[in-house]
Amino acid sequence: xxKVTQSSRYLVKRTGEKVFLECVxxxxxxxMFWYRQDPGLGLRLIYFSYDVKMKEKGDxxxxxxxxxxxxxxxxxILESASTNQTSMYLCASSTVRGHEKLFFGSGTQxxxx
Amino acid sequence: xxxxxxxxxxxxVPEGATVAFNCTYSNxxxxxFFWYRQDCRKEPKxxxxxxxxxxxxxxFTAQLNRASQYISLLIRDSxxxxxxxxLCVVNIPNTGNQFYFGTGTSLTVIx
Lengths: 113, 111
Fold this sequence. Notes:
The complex is a heterodimer. Chain A is mainly beta.
């Protein structure tokens, strides 16, 4: 089975802190994605990556950056956390070959105080 | 206009009932279609892919109508454990985002 692992299930940070959310997948998938999910707004794409060292902005990249130094790892960075970044963060991966499907990590519930 | 639209519900149905969800998509280049299930405070998990010919997995039946650009999910003989949010997901190749989500339909099965 595909496994997408997010480093933390719950995080509490203070306004202005730098926050790192880590995601690792074990199926050699090319594509990796970071979403946030808020009640009533559904899943919104923050950033995605098709290859190592490659990144593309999604729908809501402001206040975030990403890093993909290795194929299996995709990190989301909040340079200076703000209260409006309190959310559930979901990492996902997919292959580019054939019938693409998304596989999600278990999510990180981030609270910024 | 949103790429994918779903009725958010909530749907509250008694055990044993049959319930159907619909989802419409706007881009005719959409290629792959999925239903995901998401439990409260958990990640979405793939329930089933949706094929043009329709497909069934136990009590769940998914159908795709390309002409009208909608997909459906039918749940027969609802169980309490079916209570969850069901997300419609569409894959549009050669677009940046690739995957487009409905906001989800909430289902509660009542004893």
